[in-house]
Amino acid sequence: MKKTGFTILELLLAIVIMSILTALTVKTLSSLRMANRDGKRITDIRLIQGALESFYRDVGMYPTTITAGSPLSYSLTTYLPHVPFNPQPVDNGCTATTTYTYSQDENGASYSLSFCLGNKTSDVGAGANTAVPGDIVTCLPNCFMSCNTGVYNGVPNTGADGCGGVCTNVQSCPTNYTCLDNHCLVD
């Protein structure tokens, strides 16, 4: 009489193969979830940019603040029913925050909307990014053109007017980058 069944070696081999397949599946799903959150971030930012441009066209300046979860409106016009929250979990290597970081310049003629991506998504780079009117730039934060007189990148710098009114007396962009709207952009 012949016994039927599996040997311990066959069972162990089956368990190892199933463990490997499970690990690959979990890793793939995790990557897909991060990519979906990054895609949602890009969609959110472009949606907010469109609402901000409509606001600017009607009001003549950008709003001083925007609040996630609240409408973006002025007078009786609603430009965005709910400003989106940053998708959670924030697993993109940047500071964990549930909101996008918005700031308006001092006269309302410009804004910056900071966010972070875990991976390059479409034409937007991984890491810290900033939306400015009409564009999204992958940037290095905290650069400022010097307000000292002299020449910067071949352009005479005459104080505050020579660098857009940002006076910090430092210039912290690396080689092959230019400081524009307080961000280092690739030349």
Identify the notable features of this structure and list them briefly.
alpha+beta; two-stranded antiparallel ribbon; 1 helix; single chain; 187 residues; 2 domains; four-stranded antiparallel sheet; elongated
Account of the protein in words:
InterPro entries: Bac_GSPG_pilin, N_methyl_site, Pilin-like. This is Type II secretion system protein GspG C-terminal domain-containing protein. The chain crosses the membrane at residues 6-26. Keywords: Membrane, Methylation, Transmembrane, Transmembrane helix. The chain is of the alpha+beta class and 187 residues long. The protein has two domains: 9-138, no CATH class; 140-187, no CATH class. The chain is 28% helix and 22% strand. It contains one helix and ten strands; from the N terminus they run αββββββββββ. The protein has one helix spanning 8-59, and strands at residues 72-74, 77-80, 101-104, 111-117, 127-132, 135-138, 150-152, 155-157, 177-180, 183-186. A four-stranded antiparallel beta sheet has the order 3-4-5-6, covered by helices on one side. A two-stranded antiparallel ribbon has the order 1-2. Strand 9 (177-180) and strand 10 form a beta hairpin. The radius of gyration is 25 Å and the shape is elongated. The chain starts with 7 loop residues before the first helix and ends with a strand. Mean pLDDT is 77; it is low at 140-171.
